[in-house]
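Entry for the shared binder. Reason: the reviewer on the internal report wants the predicted structure included alongside the sequence.
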Amino acid sequence: QVQLVESGGGLVQPGGSLRLSCAASGSIFNIYSMGWYRQAPGKQRELVADITSGGRTNYADSVKGRFTISRDNPKNTVYLQMNSLKPEDTAVYYCNARQVQYGITTAYWGQGTQVTVSS
């Protein structure tokens, strides 16, 4: 089992910045990728960004150029730096980790952290 603990959400004005952190613990071997998803009220959960253990990144079009994902492998922690925030970025942000063992991929989720962008 992998446990994910998120931190860093909150209320910010449009144009502001926030940094989310997610620390993984437990059986943290063979974690291929870590990332962030978000879910706004009435909408499906969507990928925001993810990063592989090798550092390859992937971003949703809506956040490219504004958000940056990074990963500290020794600390098993992933970060999401969010700049130029917009009201439409308001959502619950969930940390995700994908573990590959014996060819089977298992996804783990954090409890979620609320990000609200409002004046």
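Summary line for the report: The mean pLDDT is 95.
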